[in-house]
Known about the structure:
The chain is an all-alpha fold. It has one domain. The protein has 11 helices and no strands. The relative contact order is 0.22. The mean pLDDT is 87.
Amino acid sequence: MLFEFAYTPLEILAATAAMILGSLIQGAVGFGAALVVAPVLVAIDPRLVPGAGMVGFLFITMQSWLRERNQVVWAQVSWATVGRIPGSFLGAYILILLPLNAMGALVGSVVILGVLLSVCGWNIPIHRRSLVGAGVLSGVAGTISSVGGPPLALLYQNSTGPHLRATLGAYFTIAILTSLPLLYLVDRFHLSELIAGLVLAPGVWLGMYLSKFAIPYLDGGYTRMAVLWVCGASGLWVMVDALYNAY
Length: 247
């Protein structure tokens, strides 16, 4: 695809506003920016998802990781990444073979099911197998829909806020750097998406700054509730969007 970047000031403003809000949510909860940013980018230009969104999210995840880097458990990040790599390849392969709408509906349904089971008291302990499994699901979902946070977030729902944010931030930084080359190989990431993602960077910095004021509230006992709400909303959006586009 030839280089193309022809978005209006209003479109750039809308995308930046979405990135501010998305960065605020992810900076405070540990994930969830895609829930806000992806629908806006799709409305502006469907080609911006997932590539341009991932570029913007990369700035968020790096800041989340560096801001609370002493809380990162690298052994857990490593095992989740072991699952993420084949999951990303599988997601890219699915993009070639199967209808995107059908896979989006499936991803959304699985996320919602996970939230419902968690609300009913079903929790999976964090160990090597669960980290690898969540990493695989995160890789598939993230590559297909940009919403790769819920599988890992549900696994960490009972962790402290700093541990969840820092560990997921480190994991998603590595995950995005893995997914972008794969999207390029399947012709879903180009120079125009890279430039568009870089344009979103100012919104990231402002949103991450604002998130510092929400963190004390969530860390006061509301982290798990925030994780479940954001996971449920993310799954619902992916499923509804897929079904809407199918018809």
